[in-house]
Predict the structure of Glycolipid 2-alpha-mannosyltransferase.
Amino acid sequence: MAGSQRYMRYIVFALFALIVFYFISSSSVPSASWPAYGESTTPSTPNAAVTAVTAATPHSSTTPNEKTLPPATISGDRMNATFVTLARNSDIWEIAKSIRHVEDRFNRKFNYDWVFLNDDDFDDEFKKITTALVSGKTKYGKIPKEHWSFPEWIDQDKAAKVREEMKEKKIIYGDSVSYRHMCRYESGFFFRHPLMLDYEWYWRVEPSVELYCDINYDTFKFMAEKKKKYSFTLSLYEYVDTIPTLWDATKNFTKHYPQHIAKNNAMKFLSDDGGETYNHCHFWSNFEIGNLNWLRSQAYIDFFTSLDKAGGFFYERWGDAPVHSIAAGLMLNKDEIHFFNDIAYYHVPFTHCPTGEQYRIDHKCSCNPKDNFDWNGYSCTSRFYEMNGMEKPAGYEKEQ
Ligand SMILES: Nc1nc2c(ncn2[C@@H]2O[C@H](COP(=O)(O)OP(=O)(O)OP(=O)(O)O)[C@@H](O)[C@H]2O)c(=O)[nH]1
Ligand SMILES: *[C@@H]1O[C@H](CO)[C@@H](O)[C@H](O)[C@H]1NC(C)=O
Ligand SMILES: *[C@@H]1O[C@H](CO)[C@@H](O)[C@H](O)[C@H]1NC(C)=O
Ligand SMILES: [Mg+2]
């Protein structure tokens, strides 16, 4: 008799404890402050996190933390936009680092998609790791052979001879065939890949890049609202030996297609003599946020096709950075090009660290302002400011 009474007591006590525990746990999880999770495309991770929190508070002696957590994602609609990365399977751990930076500083709050492109098939490890790291949807595309090979009008012997010469001259990537395919692909094809046709905006990310400040607003929405088409964080002078005839080819294009040249263009950024010669300034294209429909426009396609016919991707070593920059400089109005001073960025060997201490403090920046390249003599960013009649950021003299 005494035994079954004790059992009864245990059962009643256990039930009571369960009810109390349920009550505490459900009221201590601030579910109302995580509304955006419900709309997220990847609900499994956040839910798991919530379960872990409840499981870790079994003792009623622990006082619940009443602090309201910030929402996991920023509310509002998203733009028709994606990140895009061209990479090899062997780039996996370097792109993993880049993704982590982009997610931590920006995309965990926005959950944009990420398109990966490769001239080969992506392997399972690449897909598994990148899918785990990206908060939005990931998509993997193979580049069609026609977009990653020599066009039929290219003289293979001539191209091979150039590679030999460039090797002797120790020009970086001078003897590389794949680097040339890469530059041509980024110049003329990535925006036409079937996976990219679903989007209007892109943000290009390369392996081993870093972001040093929080980005708390939607950069794609900014581009759309301010009517921007192309953007940059770093600009510099191109290595002349890689593009000796690029400007001649550009002038041949402008002669054939004067209708594609914008009235209020950024020629002043590209040339110091009204277009006679190129000053070699370009926006560094390993970072880009831009409009895909502009790249798919007749004007841009005519420009790329004209350059491609001239053969400089193979007979020289034209980079996609000067190609995109010249296109933007001539075929966009200059106010359609945006300098993202607030995006702190690193791609070896240059850093863009925003000028102005208050901005850096407010956005949890971790870059050393002394590393900022903008006001260095080898940067073209001062020219961009001058062309647009913009005041340089306050305090720039002290940070160079
Ligand atoms: N699939 C594929 N991607 C490539 C190939 N070569 C380069 N890439 C990618 O193209 C982009 C530019 O190549 P990088 O090697 O970074 O060229 P870079 O930025 O001029 O030079 P680094 O200073 O070495 O970074 C990166 O996103 C690379 O992952 C290739 O042969 N195949
Ligand atoms: C996104 O943009 C692409 C290219 O302009 C377009 O084809 C597609 O319909 C758009 N998607 C949505 C959801 O608006
Ligand atoms: C000049 O441009 C035209 C039109 O794009 C092109 O057909 C031609 O091949 C170009 N010539 C040279 C030398 O690049
Ligand atoms: Mg790179």
